[in-house]
Specification:
By secondary structure, this protein is of the alpha+beta class. Helices cover 31% and strands 30% of the residues. It has helices at residues 14-25, 53-62; strands at residues 2-7, 30-36, 41-46, 68-69.
Length: 70
């Protein structure tokens, strides 16, 4: 399993957190996706053979936000 972090600069509230987590957690191979509102950081633990960095970023974009890999 890999763990990766992303900055979500345009996130600002609990609704944003819930939406991003929902979209990312629905990807195959995701063990956990946790958003920290105070730091605007998304931490994702995933199986690298089941999903990719690009798919995670796309899920965040589909949720309506921008993800920048840390």
């Amino acid at each position: 399993m890999n763990t990766i972090t992303y900055l979500i600069p345009d996130m600002s509230c609990g609704h944003c957190k819930a939406r991003i987590e929902e979209y990312v957690n629905h990807l195959p191979g995701i063990h956990s996706a946790i958003v920290y509102i105070d730091t605007k950081i998304l931490t994702v633990t995933y199986h690298e053979n089941e999903t990719t960095n690009e798919e995670i970023i796309k899920a965040v974009e589909d949720a309506g936000y921008t993800a920048k890999q840390q």
